[in-house]
Specification:
Blueprint lengths: L4 E3 L15 H7 L4 E3 L3 H11 L26 H5 L5 E4 L14 E6 L4 H9 L3 E6 L11 E4 L10 H11 L7 E4 L1 H10 L3 E17 L5 E12 L8 E7 L5 E6 L4 E4 L14 H10 L19 E5 L10 H16 L3 E5 L15 E3 L5 H11 L3 E3 L4 H13 L2 H4 L3 E2 L4 H8 L1 H10 L7 E4 L2 H11 L3 E5 L9 E3 L2 H14 L3 E5 L5 E9 L5 E9 L12 E3 L6 H18 L3 E9 L6 E7 L4 H10 L3 H9 L27 E6 L20 E6 L1
Parallel strand pairs: 1-2, 4-5, 4-6, 6-7, 7-12, 13-14, 13-16, 14-15, 16-17
Antiparallel strand pairs: 3-5, 8-9, 8-10, 10-11, 11-12, 18-21, 19-20, 19-21, 22-23, 22-25, 23-24, 24-27, 25-26, 27-28
């Protein structure tokens, strides 16, 4: 029987630089029926309530009985998809040697192996002998055994289970690694039982906890059967556990080199947060002992009294968005039973309302003023992430002046060193170079002459921006020396440093909201795409969430980079990363990282229902993502990545009639004073 595809919408004019044929053409090529115009949300809700069920597509005008109802659970689907004869794959990468000094040979049981698994092994320099699902491999010579993914009920593969049982009972058994169905087959061979799940775990955002370390990883899964953890025999233990429903996600032997996982570490296009498991397997094949890892949580000193810096007076680029973030942070701190001291001169905000903070100082957010408040209140810690650029700059100044050290005030959340690394372009560039990440060619300058010289070195056109500034203040595109000199002069009025960078005008501008805790659990909550190309400030652009023109490969690639950057910088809480993406390739550059809640954070929170500011405040106090509860479901973990089946758009609002002599053209400097949001 042919499979089928059901989608809500099918684009009639798809457009992407990497497009070779449409989805409809692909379905025709492979003789797969498809149907669109279906309310897939209603269908999903029905399945959620009733559980996974059988279904079929009946063509219009045909009798229902003309399409037979097939129950895949009654079939040995593995036998249908497995290859029929052994096949050897030899890597062109430098050979990875086994214990005997020869190229390492891995025997892989094909139960429906994904092509990307073969690619992973080839990239490691091994040779891969792929054999049919029922192949008796007892007479083969190999260094390690891999059990692939596959469809259907694992109990249908009794021949495979028998061969595995005979292998792991040998005293000289080689290392074994299984994925997806391979986890269930290894478990059955070890003496476990499996069961049919009501729904199954499917999708690319399943959180799984490593029982050795307590770390939580986002994984891709597609399975309807699971191992019963109560049936795990002596000598074995759970390797991974699903953070939402506590089902088994992997088993590992306590003393022997056997392990398997229920998810796909090699998922194409991703996420690939757990692809280190391939290296772990090959190290065991080489005879290396597994690293001793235990669950460890860095002790945190409780903060009973917290000083929160607000954003100050309303200005373009810094207004209600930070009131939203600060208000959410205050509510989170109250849940944590903290005493809250707030500094914010703006009385027209929610966070300064009665019943919010325990004590409010309607004073400017400046280093001298904040020092006097610290001297009077003696807080345990200070939060800098919730007041926009004003709070961030003030916190950096307090740290440099030694005020925080003098009064023993800890910076909660992202450390000052990480904040400076994101704000000082020279340090930022050096940090990204350390992890081989792509940044636009650019240089910082502290004088007008230096800025003009840097622009000439890069080659016109260039973009010039003031460092430590918000809303693209003092920025613009320079096309010659005269315009470069004018822009540098303007930028240095507002900042001690001007950033001169290669112009990527016309590229796509993409943003990711990243959350990370002190135990290195890291997720991306939302990605957004500017309707306008690079060159128009995000605040002046229509923004769409989630992105609509990225391929899955592009989305996952930028997601992986965002997580790598957040970890390398040492973010604790929330940050925003912005990319420039070439519309004709996968070439990208990192524009900047905001080590704080941003305007986009407020949009992302409302778009996804994920309370970024609230979670960031709790993480700043030492809480871990897997321990926090999803505020929507009130039962699953906050360590997850929302998947949207709707689109959110933000449209800016301008009021230029209030400003004399201001150009009505939008550009790299923000001019909007508000925004509206729509969901559909």
């Amino acid at each position: 029987p042919a499979p089928a595809l059901i989608v809500a919408e099918s684009p009639h004019a798809p457009c992407h630089w990497n497009l070779t044929h449409t989805l409809s053409d692909w379905l025709k090529q492979h003789n797969v029926p498809g149907i669109y115009g279906i309310d897939t949300r209603a269908l999903t809700k029905h399945i959620r309530e009733q559980g996974a069920m059988l279904g079929k597509i009946v063509p219009a005008g045909a009798a229902e009985s003309s399409v037979p109802q097939v129950n895949p659970n009654d079939l040995n689907l593995v036998a249908e998809v497995s290859l029929k004869e052994p096949r050897l794959f030899v890597s062109h990468a430098p050979p990875r040697q086994g214990k005997d000094g020869k190229r390492m040979r891995i025997l892989a049981i094909d139960c429906g192996i994904k092509a990307n698994i073969i690619r992973y092994f080839m990239s490691k320099g091994v040779e891969l002998l792929l054999v049919p699902w029922d192949y008796d491999f007892s007479g083969e010579a190999f260094d390690g055994l891999f059990i692939s993914n596959g469809p259907g009920d694992p109990t249908q593969c009794q021949k495979t289970i028998g061969h595995l049982r005979a292998l792991i009972e040998r005293a000289d058994a080689p290392p074994v690694f299984g994925i997806c169905l391979g986890n269930q087959l290894l478990a059955l061979a070890a003496g476990c039982t499996t069961f049919k799940m009501k729904y199954g775990n499917r999708g690319a955002n399943q959180p799984c906890i490593d029982t050795r370390t307590g770390r939580c990883y986002i994984t891709a899964q597609n399975h309807g059967f699971a191992v019963d953890p109560a049936s795990i025999p002596q000598g074995w233990e759970q390797f991974f556990v699903n953070a939402n429903d506590a089902t088994n996600e992997g088993i590992i032997h306590k003393t022997r080199p056997f392990f398997s996982v229920q998810f796909h570490p090699e998922a194409c296009a991703g996420p690939t947060d757990t692809d280190f498991l391939f290296e772990m397997f090959l190290r065991r094949v080489h005879g290396e002992h597994a690293e001793v890892t235990v669950s460890y949580r860095q002790p945190t000193i409780p903060a009973r009294k917290v000083l929160l810096l607000g954003s100050g007076g309303l200005s373009i680029g810094q207004a209600g968005e930070f009131d939203y973030s600060g208000s959410q942070a205050i509510k989170a701190l109250k849940e944590m039973r903290c005493e809250i001291v707030l500094i914010n001169p703006n009385i027209a905000t929610v966070q300064t309302s009665e019943g919010m903070a325990d004590r409010v100082y309607f004073l400017p957010v400046t280093p001298d003023v904040v020092r006097s408040v610290i001297e009077r209140e003696r807080p345990d810690g200070i939060l800098l992430q919730f007041g926009g650029q004003t709070a961030l700059n003030c916190g950096v100044a307090l740290d440099k002046n030694g005020v925080l050290a003098e009064f023993g005030v800890r910076v909660l959340g992202t450390p000052v060193e990480a904040i400076i690394a994101t704000e000082d372009r020279e340090i930022f560039n050096a940090k990204l170079t350390e992890i081989n990440e792509r940044i636009a060619e650019g240089y910082p300058a502290s004088t007008v002459d230096d800025a003009v010289a840097m622009a000439a070195k890069i080659g016109f056109p260039v973009i010039m921006r003031a460092a430590f500034a918000l809303g693209g203040l003092g920025s613009g595109f320079a096309h010659d020396e005269e315009s470069a000199r004018a822009l540098a002069t303007q930028a240095l009025i507002n900042s001690p440093q001007v950033l001169v960078e290669r112009s990527m005008k016309g590229w796509k501008e993409i943003e990711y909201e990243v959350v990370r805790d002190c135990n290195d659990n890291c997720i991306t909550v939302c990605n957004m795409e500017n309707f306008d190309p690079l060159g128009i400030h995000t605040g002046d652009s229509i923004v769409v969430a989630p992105s609509q023109t990225l391929s899955n490969a592009e989305y996952m690639k930028l997601r992986s980079v965002a997580i790598k950057v957040a970890r390398h910088l040492g973010i604790v809480g929330e940050c925003n990363i912005q990319y420039a993406l070439n519309p004709q390739s996968e070439e990208y550059c990192i524009i900047e990282v905001n080590a704080r809640l941003s305007r986009s954070s407020a949009l992302a929170s409302k778009a996804t229902g994920y309370p970024l500011a609230s979670v960031a405040a709790k993480l700043a106090l030492g809480n871990l993502l897997p321990d926090l509860t999803n505020s929507v479901t009130l039962s699953t973990t906050a360590c997850f990545e929302p998947s949207l089946d709707y689109v959110v758009t933000k449209v800016p609002r301008w009021d230029l009639s209030k400003f004399d002599r201001v150009s009505r053209e939008i550009g790299s400097a923000m001019k909007s004073v508000g925004e509206g949001m729509a969901i559909g």
